[in-house]
Design a protein that fits this description.
It contains 1 helix and 23 strands. By secondary structure, the chain is mainly β. The strands form 6 sheets. Strands 15, 16, 17, 18 and 19 form a 5-stranded antiparallel beta sheet that branches. The chain has a 4-stranded antiparallel beta sheet with strand order 3-4-5-6, with no helix packed on it. The protein is globular and about 55 Å long.
Length: about 325
């Protein structure tokens, strides 16, 4: 079956979760969601897995109870979004979302979505895309091969992109993000790619979040010998101008720990991932200051899935916080 997207919400910062409900549009077989929670609604990007639309990137606006406010439509019409290209979303402000896209090598394509443009029938939802080039720094080699994952986050007036290279190198680039002018992306100003860790994860196995102190937190999935689904989650963070040594934080005694997603609310980090033998969604949170130790993460909870005949299998969760602190 093509499957469909499910939506759940927590009003109390992860203590309780609503039962997941369908977002809609099952005819497109939308998978691998990218979510940007704004003020009053959210922008959702997904890949289609059905028929002639397979591999295409679609967007839809949804309200904050998981109902579609618009019909799914292709992102950036006329721009090739091949199935192997990686994408990441980052919220720039209450009205603006950044899309980062890359296939490999030493360049990124970036564009912005703005709510006011989206409401104006005369204007395009998205700005023209721009190419951003960057250089290797030290052992990082992004010159060939496809990336395995891509994430982006805004923290302490810096915009940081985290990627996973074809050889399993987890790297970052960043640039200043001060005022409104930087969103135009015209000023190059990017740092060289810096290696955070050497890993061998699977597709979409890295996630990133930031906190009020400007620390950048990265979590990724590690599999046995780089084969199959992830079996544990590892963590590193950037603070005081340097990256910490990677450390394991989630190591289930059985089942999986793959496709993690990370969000920050207040002083806590919130993580969701595909767990259990069948890929059900698990959730846990920890204080951001102590997130590098496994003891800081409590026993994971299972997110409630809708009651259906047979076994419900879920994957590729996206956890995001809106401006009111609700988790989606």
């Amino acid at each position: 079956e093509a499957g469909e997207l499910l939506w759940a919400q927590s009003e109390d910062r992860g203590q309780n979760w609503s039962t997941a409900t369908s977002v809609g549009a099952p005819q497109l077989g939308l998978r691998q969601p990218l979510l940007a929670a704004l003020s009053g609604d959210a922008l959702l990007l997904c890949r289609s897995t059905v028929g002639q639309t397979a591999g295409g990137l679609y967007q839809v606006t949804i309200n904050l109870i998981g109902r579609m406010a618009s019909e799914p439509q292709p992102v950036l019409p006329g721009v090739e979004m091949v199935a192997s290209r990686r994408h990441a979303l980052a919220v720039a402000d209450a009205e603006t979302v950044l899309l980062v896209s890359g296939l490999g090598g030493e360049s990124l394509t970036m564009a912005t979505w703005n709510r006011q443009r989206a409401l104006d029938p005369v204007q395009e939802d998205w700005s023209p895309s721009q190419l951003v080039a960057f250089e290797r720094d030290g052992p990082v080699d992004n010159s060939a091969g496809e990336w395995m994952g891509l994430q982006a986050v805004l923290a302490a007036e810096r915009f940081t992109v985290v990627g996973v290279g074809p050889e399993g190198d987890l790297w970052t680039i960043s640039r200043a993000a001060v005022g409104q002018e930087w969103i135009s992306l015209a000023d190059p100003g990017w740092s060289g790619a810096t290696q955070v860790a050497e890993i061998d994860p699977g597709d979409d196995a890295v996630t990133v979040a930031s906190d009020a102190q400007g620390r950048v937190h990265v979590v990724w999935s590690v599999s046995q010998g780089g084969q199959g689904n992830g079996l544990s989650l590892w963590y590193a963070r950037h603070a005081d101008g340097r990256w910490t040594q990677p450390s394991p934080i989630i190591q289930p005694t059985e089942g999986l720990a793959g496709h993690p997603s990370l969000a920050q609310v207040g002083e806590r980090l919130h993580a969701a991932w595909s767990g259990g033998a069948g890929g059900q969604i698990q959730y846990a949170s920890a204080f951001a200051a102590d997130a590098y130790t496994a003891a800081s993460w409590p026993q994971p909870a299972w997110l409630p899935l809708p009651a259906q005949e047979g076994e419900t299998v879920a994957s590729h969760p996206q956890i995001r916080a809106d401006l009111a602190g609700r988790l989606h």
